[in-house]
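Lab notebook page, bench 4
Experiment: in silico fold of construct C2
Operator: M.H.
Input chain length: 117 residues
Purpose: comparison with the prior construct
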Amino acid sequence: MQRELIVLARAAAVGGLAQAQAGTIDFQAVAAATTDAEKRQVRVSPQVEVDGKSIEIGYHTILRSGYKKAETYGQILDEDGDPVVAEDGSPVISNASDFASLCRSFSIRTGNRIRTS
C-alpha cells in the first residue's frame, strides 16, 4: 500500500512538472558592497522584470528586536508570561529573532495567463 502511494506521488509530481510553464525573470543588478558601511546594509534589487514586465520591489523592515507594537518584539518571557529582566531591571530583548515577514501578494497578467505570488 505504501509503495503504491509513493509511486502515485512520484507520478503526480512528474505530471505536474510537465505542465509547468516557464517564463523569464531578471533582477536589476546590485553593485557589490565595497565600504564597511555598505557591507552592513541590507542591499536588494529595486526592480525585477518578469516576462518583460517591470515591477518595483524592495526590502522593508517590518520588525526589529525591541520594536513596540502590541508587545515588545523579541521580549523574552518567563514560564508565566512575565518579562525577563536583567540585574539592572532592564528588559531582556532577543537579538536573534527567527523571522518576521509580511508577504505582499501580487498578480502578473501575461497574455491570457495570470500569475500570483
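Observations: The mean pLDDT is 76. Residues 24-60 form one domain.
Next step: discuss at group meeting.
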